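Batch manifest, entry 17 of 40.
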Amino acid sequence: ESIRRMGGSVALYYSLIDKFRVNQKSVVQKIRDAQTANDLKFAERLSHTLRGIAGSLGAESLQHLAHQLEMNFSNGVLTEVDSLLPKVDLEIESLIVKIDRAIDARQ
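Output type: structure tokens
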């Protein structure tokens, strides 16, 4: 399904998952830092980007969690953020392990 979203390009898909594991590995810490700095717009943008990439990769659970984060920041209702961030972090870690396996198997 995800490769279909990339126009059938396996190379593009592998490029995207490789960029994900590099660029999104520390996104939860960046979101926390933005929240601490009271920069909710930046935290919202980071969450939005994560949601979009997760959707492109077919990582539906991560996409859903990132959407919840994005909506919390967008609405200024931060009551769920502290409970969502560890879940997002676990989903990212799990996805990166799968990405590493896929990339290793391809080489």
